[in-house]
Amino acid sequence: MEKTRLFIVELRMRCFIFPVFLVVLLLLGSGIARAEPAVSFEEKTVDFGDVEQGELLEHTFVFSNDGTDVLVIEKVTAS
Fold first, then answer.
1. pLDDT (tens digit, 0 to 9) for every residue of the chain, 79 residues total?
2. Nearest in space to 44 (alpha carbons), one of 22, 62, 71
3. Domain residue spans in the chain?
């Protein structure tokens, strides 16, 4: 009879501890930093002032990848 009680208590503890352990692992795992690129620009806008139609303008934007993964630039547009 005593072995049966011990078995039941042990089974209940396992049924409680295992889900708690899984939840703790999931919460800890969600805090792990992922490798991601992070672009930062020295300047985000440029004011060319008054421009005549057809006039060719150029500007070089300087930027850096402050992230921990490769930064891939797939498309650039002007507005």
1. 677 888 888 888 888 888 888 888 887 776 666 788 999 999 989 999 999 999 999 999 999 999 999 999 999 887 7
2. 62
3. 2-48+55-65
